[in-house]
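Hello K.,

You asked for the raw outputs rather than the summary table, so here they are, unedited. I folded two proteins back to back in the same session to keep the settings identical. This is the first:
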Amino acid sequence: QVQLVESGGGLVQPGGSLRLSCAASRSIVPISLVGWYRQAPGKSREFVAHITNEGHIMYANSVEGRFTISRDNAENTVNLQMNSLEPEDTDVYYCTDQNLWGPGTQVTVSS
């Protein structure tokens, strides 16, 4: 069973960038879809983006044009490049293969 671990979170000023990485414990080639979600305290987890093993990509409207998801099969990672960050992007970010979730990484956008 694959394990997923997120990294790359931190504190950034509005307008800044962060690159999140979701590292899998084995090859991600057989994983049909890997997604990124985010959750704020007291709120439900919301969809951010996903990418399939055929390269199909989908983004939430709120991040379209600012975030870019990509797969690196050689490194067994799925990355989320986040640009033009806004305070509203402050959340814990999780990756999932639709069966398991990573522990999450905190992103804080604040001046």
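The second followed immediately with the same parameters:
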Amino acid sequence: QVQLVESGGGLVQTGGSLRLSCAVSGRTISRTAMGWFRQAPGKEREFVASITRSGGSTDYADSVKGRFTVSTDNAKNTVYLQMNSLKSEDTAVYYCAADLVHYYSVRNPALASLNTYDYWGQGTQVTVSS
């Protein structure tokens, strides 16, 4: 059974930083493409970032490019999302997701789609106050 558990969310001021973690069990992340998504109140869940298996390639939504960084620690089987220069519009519940089927090792537009992913975490709240 694959489980994803996010942590690291919280309240931060505009311009601040947070690092989200996604601890994965039941699946080795070096063999798994991972994604981060977010959902703000009243809005649809949207793509934030992805990283291919073995950390080969990363991709980011235009709204976070240059501010967010996705990375992995294979020893801890954990995926991270480092978020810097946070803005009020980054306020949302953040979810990590795992793609167990496609074995993407290079950047692929499909990793920006919710439908690509098979397992999801429960989400962690990020609130950015001005």
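Residues 51 and 58 are 4 Å apart (CA to CA).

Happy to rerun anything if the numbers look odd on your end.

Regards,
P.
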